Amino acid sequence: MHLTSRKYIFISIAMTNSDPPLLNHYGAIFSSHSPQLDVTKNRLVIEECQLPLIDLSGLSNHDETVRRACVAAICGASSEWGFFQVLNHGISPQLVEKMRSEQVKLFKIPFERKASCGLLNNSYRWGSPRSTCPKQFSWSEAFHIPLTKVSDEACYGEFISLRAVMIEFAAAMSKLAGFLGSVLTANLGHGKEVIKNLCDEGTCFLRLNHYAACPISPEILGLVRHIDSDFLTILCQDQVGGLQLMKDSKWVTVKPNRDALIVNIGDLFQAWSNGVYKSVEHKVVTNAKMERYSIAYFLCPSYDSSIGSFKEPSIYRKFTFREYRDQVQEDVRKTGYKVGLPRFLVSGRGDLITGNME
């Protein structure tokens, strides 16, 4: 039997019990997508990488040599990898555990309630509503809440205990993001307050992610390949794993570290640093038997903030964060994908950077 036909039969059988209805949505896309799926594309990952691991206690060391080495490690990883891990980051294991426990309780409620009861600023999302083919579909669900709403009692309904933990966790992640942002900007010759002055609670977000076990195929992605539309992202994940990033033109799997948080550079820092720091394409793969939870913090500027290179000649033309977001949303609407910074390249300067897309 043809691979596509076998898979569709399996999806049809499995569709009877799905919460959220990821199988239903994926099955509808699959049945209307006539070409055979590329079953090899997401199976080519053969390496597991250990991201650069940086102990942030070095930044407060009395020895200037140790402090400078820590800064060099952060900035070097941001340039070479676009990703790194941090230890001694100031967020206690106890707080992480409390946040994870509340997150699990939240996602365990029935889909109908999550989708309709207005929880967390009515920010619940699942699957990929705009996807037109299986490779654009994300097998996951999430709440995506702006910092300005984290303390709003009206957002939590019966989940009263979640509010206190969210407030504490968001404040800790915000402090860490601002601190790391100031280190990266200072390395470019800017004052440490630049990031703080640019960023806005109304555009910074916490995203609570749940990746359900996927019984169909490892080729289905939990989160489709993308680049982040911010200055930087901080990720707190469990031990299931699934994060993959593009390194040296191939996908590599990130090995989870129980004690570390993952930091990655976004498009805005790549533009602002004139390509010194790299915004790297990444994705999340599914697991056939285990569900995965993560929390991401996105450090973003106000919508009217102007993003321009710290030196000339600039690779990218100046743009506002609003202009960037509008372009990203338009691209996703039309193509199903983020295009990102290539839309803002100065004519003739594209040969100076390495593209993020395959």
Walk me through this protein's architecture.
There is one protein chain. The chain is built from ten helices and 15 strands. The longest helix is centred in the middle third of the chain and has 28 residues, at 160-187. The model is unreliable at 34-43 and 350-358 (pLDDT under 50). The strands form three sheets. It has an eight-stranded mixed beta sheet with strand order 2-3-11-8-13-6-5-4. Strands 1-10-9-12-7 form a five-stranded mixed beta sheet, with no helix packed on it. Helices cover 33% and strands 19% of the residues. The protein is an alpha+beta fold. The chain has helices at residues 3-14, 22-31, 64-80, 93-108, 111-116, 119-122, 160-187, 194-198, 267-272, 321-335; strands at 48-49, 53-55, 83-87, 124-126, 141-146, 205-211, 221-226, 232-237, 243-247, 250-254, 261-265, 282-285, 292-299, 306-307, 319-320. Helix 3 links the parallel strand 2 (53-55) and strand 3. The chain has one domain: Jelly Rolls (Sandwich), CATH 2.60.120.330.
